[in-house]
UniProtKB/TrEMBL annotation:
The protein's name in its UniProt record: Zinc finger protein 593
Originating gene: ZNF593
InterPro entries registered for this protein in UniProt: C2H2-ZF_Maturation_Protein (IPR051879), Znf_C2H2_jaz (IPR022755), Znf_C2H2_sf (IPR036236), Znf_C2H2_type (IPR013087)
Keywords from the UniProt entry: Cytoplasm, Metal-binding, Nucleus, Ribosome biogenesis, Zinc, Zinc-finger
Subcellular location per the Swiss-Prot or TrEMBL entry: Cytoplasm; Nucleus
Length: 129
């Protein structure tokens, strides 16, 4: 008989899934969720939110593509120049995976390559203060 991999957890439930907690803590929106946020009516709501003192930067400085809030306009502009933001823009250029595409991949239709989507960094309003 081998020894159980998980030991010492009967005393405290807090120790059980520490790695799972950390993974979920840093979880961001998926690409298909961001694509739905990029639709004009949803994007307008996200970019012009009411002041919320519980959010970072009072929810006034939001990167639509990365789904992140920033403290001020300067931090948001600096973020637009970062490697992470540019990688996210590159990922968002490909059209999101759909059910129709899944059916074609399973042999229920002919293959159509995914389309590319034009994605540019969001415009920044200077007079937000």
């Amino acid at each position: 008989m081998g020894k159980s991999k998980q030991t010492g957890n009967h005393k405290s439930d807090k120790k059980k899934n520490i790695s799972k907690k950390w993974k979920l803590k840093r979880r961001t929106k998926d690409l298909d969720q961001i694509h739905s946020d990029m639709k004009p009516e949803t994007a307008a709501k996200l970019l012009h939110q009411e002041v919320d003192y519980d959010m970072t930067g009072c929810a006034q400085h939001y990167c639509l593509h990365c789904a992140r809030y920033f403290v001020d306009l300067r931090a948001l502009k600096e973020h637009f120049k970062t490697k992470g933001h540019k990688k996210r823009l590159k990922q968002l250029r490909e059209e999101p995976y759909t059910q129709a595409e899944a059916e074609r991949a399973a042999g229920m239709g002919s293959y159509i390559p995914p389309k590319s989507v034009e994605v540019k960094t969001q415009p920044v309003e200077e007079d937000m203060d």
